[in-house]
Specification:
The protein has helices spanning 14-21, 29-37, 44-64, 75-80, 84-96, 111-118, 130-143, 194-203, 243-246, 296-300, 304-310, 347-356, 373-380; strands spanning 101-105, 122-127, 154-157, 170-173, 178-179, 182-183, 207-211, 225-231, 234-241, 252-259, 267-275, 290-294, 313-315, 323-325, 334-343, 361-366, 388-396, 399-407. The chain is globular and about 70 Å long. By secondary structure, it is α/β, with parallel strands linked by helices. The strands form three sheets. A nine-stranded mixed β-sheet has the order 3-2-1-4-7-9-8-10-11, sandwiched between helices. The protein has a seven-stranded mixed β-sheet with strand order 13-14-12-15-18-17-16. Strands 5-6 form a two-stranded antiparallel ribbon.
């Protein structure tokens, strides 16, 4: 097994690291030959690992920022790792409860462990795969350069289900949801299975779990606080805070994180909509001048009715998550559009209406209709080019309609 980081930190590899970080993917045979020539005394497999790590560091920069340039990765570990802003928020919530230690079960390459360390917590991490555990160990060792907590933090390779949990420790578990390239959809096929996590929470209530956003609502335990978290509008994860770590968190929350354009790994804005009440349906009514497409976290958490009340709106049709308002809504909990016109939803009359307006192409959103936006766009047979318009195909009071809308900044 490759000894990380000792072998890759050989001073003879410095020019290879620099050159590999500047290579644009895909890496060609000529690139590999050139890079090998920069360190002719180093084994080819080591050069190959430097190339792989340099490319993964480049990919990780958008998610993790400058610290990615010092860390080690695996491709699958990077794909499955927590967004840094999400990991930081979770770590800060645990630290705010006065906790000093976290047991990180299924730590992967260690990104959540680094967030815990960054928040002043000491970590005991466990990873089943020995090579991945080696990567996590290297990353925690690197963290020792900027945090004293890392010096007393540990990573071990082992089966997390066999670990004895310290009663004073907070526990974080991130079940593996992939088997190679295959995504495991059923919670009891995760590793560890969701049933094991639920049982562990009864023995050790100070537990928080990161799970897939699509976890069935029936699998969510009573007494827990459930957060559906989005980053820049895309669902990132569901976080389940079991009673011992729930503190004063509401039963259901939509947590919406916006990151900076220049620093996409840094928090720019945080919006939370929450409720302790059972799920309820929003009212519906006629289309008004403004349309709001709720953030995915709002929809997934069943908080559309709460958002509609906040912005003094109602649904355009029963059960369809588009909210309409008379006045421009001031909200960061969804995309806002000005409604320009209501057009027919069938391809032929809609095509005629768009051509009459000189439209070259269209961006199509849909909800509540059984149609594929790409296939529908082809049916419109628009000439291409500008102007481009945005269409929302949905139902108004149960009937199909195409809304010509203008997105607001």
């Amino acid at each position: 097994m490759l000894d990380i980081p000792r072998q890759l930190n050989d001073p003879a590899l410095a020019p290879v690291w620099l050159a590999a970080s500047q290579c644009s993917p895909p890496i060609t045979a000529a690139d590999i030959e050139r890079l090998r020539g920069l360190a002719p005394t180093v084994a080819p497999e080591i050069i190959g690992q430097v190339i792989t790590q340099a490319q993964l560091r480049n990919q990780a920069c958008e998610q993790l920022g400058p610290m990615a340039a010092e860390l080690f990765f695996t491709e699958s570990g990077l794909q499955q790792s927590t967004n840094w802003v999400v990991a930081q928020r979770r770590a800060s919530l645990i630290a705010a409860q006065g906790r000093t230690h976290v047991t990180d079960l299924g730590c992967g390459i260690g990104i959540d462990s680094l967030a815990f360390i960054d928040s002043g917590l000491t970590v005991s991490a466990v990873e089943l795969d020995p090579f991945t555990a080696t990567i996590a160990q290297a990353n925690v060792a690197i963290a020792a350069e900027w945090s004293a907590n890392a010096e007393s933090s540990t990573v071990v390779a082992g089966d997390l289900r066999k670990i004895s949990l310290d009663p004073s420790s907070a526990v974080f578990v991130d079940p593996a949801r992939r088997d190679g390239q295959r995504r495991l959809m059923k919670p009891d096929r995760w590793l560890p299975p969701w049933s094991w996590v639920a049982a562990a929470s009864r023995r050790h209530p100070a537990l928080v779990a990161k799970v897939a956003p699509g976890i069935p609502h029936r699998e969510l335990p009573e007494g827990a606080a459930v957060e559906h978290v989005s980053v820049n509008g895309g669902l990132a994860e569901t976080t389940v805070w079991f009673p011992g770590l729930r503190a004063d968190l509401p039963t259901r929350s939509a947590v919406m994180i916006t990151t900076g354009e220049q620093q996409p790994w840094a928090l720019e804005e945080l919006t939370v909509i929450s409720s302790n009440e059972p799920h309820r349906l929003a009212t519906d009514g006629p289309l008004l001048d403004w349309l709001v497409e709720p953030d995915a976290a709002v929809i997934r958490s069943g908080l559309v009715a709460e958002l509609a009340e906040q912005i003094n709106g109602h649904l355009v049709s029963p059960g369809i998550a588009y909210i309409t308002c008379a006045d421009e809504p001031a909200t960061t909990s969804g995309r806002v559009f000005r409604v320009a016109e209501v057009l027919p939803a069938k391809p032929k009359p809609l095509r005629a209406a768009l051509r009459q307006r000189g439209v070259g192409s269209a961006t199509i959103r849909t909800r509540g209709l059984a149609l594929d936006p790409d296939a529908f766009r082809k049916l419109l047979q628009l000439p291409g080019g500008t102007p481009t318009v945005e269409l929302v195909l949905t139902r108004l009071n149960g009937k199909a309609a195409a809304l010509l809308v203008t997105p607001q900044p």
